[in-house]
């Protein structure tokens, strides 16, 4: 373990950790066992937060509450070490990284500098604050008050921002904040912050990471709440969004929470795509299409609450296995075919079928994801998005998308599954477009010996350049795919090997 991440029992060598040499004596120290503090300052349990944990075993005796041991803990070398390390650690979410020494353009220009005495409470839970604080020097403790009792839940050091919710929503404060030591802070009003964020794209990127960091936590902070849902940790990051695992606050049902990145939320076309995804999927009800439960605008961005799936994307499965056995590929494509057939009958074309948007669950069910660029069949909007290797040639010419363009994308996906490669060279985008317009795909049976004729036929006909010569609807493709050999039972699950 790196020195900068040492827990208190490793630094003190007290032996009171779980399995430690003295743990069977008095007891295991709460700092080494209380999981409610897990992850704070990147420590295990309360191991880098021990001064705020009641009943710790330190200096040969059991300590009292934080209030009772405050003075002695503030003089502890371990506390001072953690504070010094946290002043430079986790710069990804430190606001002061945007104001390097000597920088001519400082986001702190115009803000008020404030001195806070040790022990002073400068943020009160329940207040409707209109300002936040950036710590320049010193450290603070975040304390949640519940049923008359005070529960320390977090520690903030130099460069951290406090009272973030006030900048975004003006909601009541979710916790008290007390100065652990004498502090120097910059005070930033909501108006100043709005002006900065509207004109600084780098800061908007950074805002996403601040929010992401707050939600990627096990600690009991109300800042992790999105409507009726609580984010419990990041499960995926993409160029457009960050996805969290979460739970419904009352029922305990697991969900996925998709947060749009802030720099994109300020761009109407991306924001509208997110709203489009909510509108379309919420009206679809099919076992192979991911379900959307809710959408919330908070923290100056949009959150989509959807069904939580356990497994892996088809693209990750391909990376792991290189190619998929024909019978398994046929089953995946059959499930996707039924999903598309349903969507098309509802008048919706997906427009972005590719392995990244197909998810294989641990129970072997396959789900279609990401309807962010979906539209009614025949929409003439000069769409130019979607993954280029999977786009039908007619879309490259500006023709409106319909069910046949989705079928083409599914055919390219099927080709990639069985061969492990896409059909055209992709080193140069311009050359790829020319080839897609002028040449049909190569016969997949030339790369895969013994490829079942029904699967070969489906791939080849789905990928004909002329949409009038393709399957005209998904029902025709499914009939061909399931003729004769048919698709055998699904023989691989997410995460398993062949």
Give structural notes.
The chain is of the alpha+beta class. The protein folds into four domains: 3-86, no CATH class; 91-199, Jelly Rolls (Sandwich); 222-307, Phosphorylase Kinase, domain 1, CATH 3.30.200; 312-481, Orthogonal Bundle (Transferase(Phosphotransferase), domain 1), CATH 1.10.510. Helices cover 30% and strands 20% of the residues. It is built from 15 helices and 21 strands. It has helices at residues 8-12, 66-74, 77-86, 164-168, 190-199, 201-215, 262-265, 268-281, 314-321, 326-345, 393-396, 403-419, 429-438, 453-462, 474-481; strands at residues 57-58, 61-62, 112-116, 121-123, 131-137, 140-146, 149-156, 161-162, 176-179, 183-189, 225-226, 229-237, 241-248, 254-260, 292-298, 301-307, 311-313, 348-349, 358-361, 366-368, 375-376. It has a six-stranded antiparallel sheet with strand order 11-12-13-14-16-15, sandwiched between helices. A four-stranded antiparallel sheet has the order 3-10-5-8. Strands 4-9-6-7 form a four-stranded antiparallel sheet, with no helix packed on it. Strand 1 and strand 2 (61-62) form a beta hairpin. Helix 10 (326-345) packs antiparallel against helix 12 (403-419), helix 12 packs across helix 14 and helix 14 (453-462) packs antiparallel against helix 15 (474-481). The longest helix is centred in the last third of the chain and has 20 residues, at 326-345. The two termini are 36 Å apart. Mean pLDDT is 82; it is low at 486-492.
Salient structural properties:
single chain; 498 residues; alpha+beta; Jelly Rolls; Phosphorylase Kinase, domain 1; 4 domains; 6-stranded antiparallel sheet; 15 helices
């Amino acid at each position: 373990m790196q020195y900068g991440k040492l827990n208190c029992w490793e630094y003190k060598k007290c032996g009171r950790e779980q399995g430690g040499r003295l743990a069977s004596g008095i007891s295991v120290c709460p700092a080494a066992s209380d999981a409610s503090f897990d992850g704070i300052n990147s420590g295990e349990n309360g191991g880098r937060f021990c001064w705020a944990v009641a009943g710790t075993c330190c200096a040969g005796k059991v300590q009292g509450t934080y209030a009772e041991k405050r003075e002695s803990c503030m003089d502890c070398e371990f506390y001072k070490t953690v504070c010094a390390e946290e002043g430079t650690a986790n710069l990804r979410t430190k606001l002061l990284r945007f104001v390097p020494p000597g920088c001519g353009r400082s986001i702190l220009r115009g803000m008020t500098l404030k001195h806070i005495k040790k022990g002073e409470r400068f943020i009160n839970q329940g207040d409707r604050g209109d300002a936040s604080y950036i710590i320049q020097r010193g450290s603070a403790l975040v304390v949640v008050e519940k049923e008359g009792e005070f529960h320390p839940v977090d520690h903030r050091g130099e460069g951290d921002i406090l009272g973030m919710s006030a900048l975004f929503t003006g909601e009541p404060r979710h916790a008290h904040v007390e100065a652990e030591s004498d502090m120097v802070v910059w005070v930033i009003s909501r108006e100043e912050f709005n002006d900065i964020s509207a004109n600084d794209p780098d800061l908007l990127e950074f805002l996403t990471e601040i929010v992401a960091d707050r939600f990627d936590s096990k600690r009991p902070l109300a800042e992790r709440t999105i409507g009726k849902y609580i984010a419990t940790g990041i499960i995926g990051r993409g160029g457009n969004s960050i996805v969290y695992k979460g739970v419904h606050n009352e029922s305990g049902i697991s969900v996925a929470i998709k947060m749009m990145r802030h720099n994109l939320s300020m761009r109407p076309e991306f924001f509208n795509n997110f709203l489009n995804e909510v509108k379309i999927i919420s009206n679809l009800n099919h076992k192979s299409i991911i379900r959307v439960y809710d959408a919330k605008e908070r923290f100056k961005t949009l959150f989509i609450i959807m069904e939580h799936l356990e497994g892996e994307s088809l693209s990750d499965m391909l990376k792991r296995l290189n190619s998929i056995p024909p019978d398994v590929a046929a089953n995946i494509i059959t499930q996707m075919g039924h999903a598309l057939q349903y969507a098309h009958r509802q008048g919706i074309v997906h427009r972005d079928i590719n392995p990244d948007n197909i998810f294989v669950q641990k129970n072997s069910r396959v789900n279609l994801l990401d309807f962010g660029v979906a539209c009614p069949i025949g929409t003439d909007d000069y769409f130019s998005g979607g993954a280029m290797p999977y786009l039908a040639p007619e879309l490259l010419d500006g023709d409106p998308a319909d069910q046949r363009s989705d079928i083409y994308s599914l055919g390219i996906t099927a080709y990639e599954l069985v061969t492990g490669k896409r059909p055209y060279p992709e080193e140069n985008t311009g050359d790829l477009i020319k080839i897609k317009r002028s040449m049909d795909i190569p016969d997949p049976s030339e790369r895969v010996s013994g490829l079942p004729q029904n699967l070969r036929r489906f791939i080849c006909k789905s990928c004909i350049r002329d949409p009038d010569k393709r399957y005209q609807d998904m029902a025709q493709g499914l009939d061909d795919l399931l003729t004769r050999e048919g698709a055998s039972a699904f023989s691989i699950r997410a995460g398993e090997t062949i």
